[in-house]
Amino acid sequence: MNKLLHFLKNYKKESVISPLFKLLEATLELFVPLVMARIIDQGIARSDEPYILKMFALLVLLALVGLVCSITAQYFAAKAAVGFAQEVRHALFAHIQSLSYAKLDEVGSGTMITRMTSDINQAQNGVNMVLRLFLRSPFIVLGAMIMSFTIDARCALIFAVAIPILSVVVFGIMFWTIPLYRRVQTALERVLGITRENLTGSRVIRAFNREKHEIDKFEEANDTLTRLQLYVGKISALTNPVTYVIVNLALLLLLWTGAFRVDVGGITQGELVALVNYMSQILVELVKLANLIITITKAIACGNRIQQVFEMQSDMEDGSVDIHEVSKDGEYVVEFEHVSMRYHGAGEDALTDIDFRVRPGETIGIIGGTGSGKSSVINLIPRFYEAAAGCVKLYGRDVREYRLKELRRYIGIVPQKAVLFQGTIRSNLALGKEDATEEEMYRALGIAQAEEIVRKKEGALDAPVEQNGRNFSGGQKQRLTIARAVVKNPDILILDDSASALDYATDAKLRQALAGMESKPVVFLVSQRAASIMHADQILVLEDGAVVGKGTHQTLLEQCEVYQEIYYSQFRKEEVTQNG
Predict the structure, then answer these.
(1) pTM to 2 decimals?
(2) From 19-33, 92-106, 197-211, the region with the lowest mean pLDDT
């Protein structure tokens, strides 16, 4: 958490002004009992109405100045805390964006979202409360004790005994509950995790008729959270009654002792009232301090979790070569030289000894069963993952030598899962190329077989896109994501099973349009359909992360058993359907 405090560097003024004004408010509050004592001893005792009115005016002045100080302190504390959270959120988001896929897989998207939202909010509350109360509460407690000694040393001894006892009770309960609060947070995270899974997988749950099971699972986690919260709530609830018992006993003793002191002339009635007020102030501030420390503890725990993300370093170092400075006249565009790759925590390699080369303008088909490593191969080209062994080359140089931003600028990728962002069709296409003209967008839409979809929409390119593209079908989303990759006019176009929702006729038109692109990019077609890749210049057949066949469609049909199995199973099904 300490390492996050440098995000307050732009709010040094606010971080100093806020506690100073709180201390000024606390100082004024300590003078109130003394003014009340004067009113009782000199005003009421002597029936001096002008003096009472003068002291009343002084109380009003102290209240108004204290109010201004309090509002000023809270304004600057809130400004510093919100600014701190904003800086942390921006920095954390930028840091997460810099992490490699391997690191993101290791941590998980749910954890990242929690760090970006609730954890930062807790840290923000902690900073706010510290600036407002961390100096004020101890100052009031110590100040009230000192002021009591200036009134009467004998009576002040009661303060000297009561404050340590109160502190033991308050902080004892606090230290007892802090570990329990951590367990509550863990249980809450589990409830949130189950809720998130149920919301994102609601269709799967209903499809398999698992509603009852998931309800029971949620209720079990929710009951655990409720029991923990009730238990820690009961312990925390002891704070007020126990402290009030101690304070009331101290007040009784103070009144008993004070009465004798008043009777013998040691102190006045007004001074006794002032001592009682100081005791009440101490009680209130100790309870505030206990709650503050619980808030700070939560903030520190959340801050440490945020810091853990900041301390994660991408296992992928950026290169120093700009790709546009490299000659593109070589024989090969992409080269895989005996490449192997392993995912984080996996027991074995996902890819083993992948070796092939791609010439300019070629179309490469990659086919294989589920989990054979098709996506893993193409993820190595833009360096989403790092090769564990071997070398992936682009234009004759290792991809690790290139600047990541420049490398990915020359590669158009259509991921396996079609993702559209909330906004408009235009804003989604602009992700591929920010300064793309309408002509370029419509050209890309035409290649992706999506132009008709867009033109029929009200607003055309400015038609709205809901979150996750909910207002588009699966096939429409796939075609729009293909257009987004095509609009940047890349040197390498990667389609990772991105036509799975398209019918065969649309798929064929798409492949024909890609082949007719003027820029003649290298195209990687990843698919489980033999029909989608059979016209490729070169086909890679993968099984268990290894290349078991490489060549043209006709060659593989004659020599590769895995390809034969895939091809004949699919085409036999088609024939049965047509005949039926």
Answers:
(1) 0.73
(2) 92-106
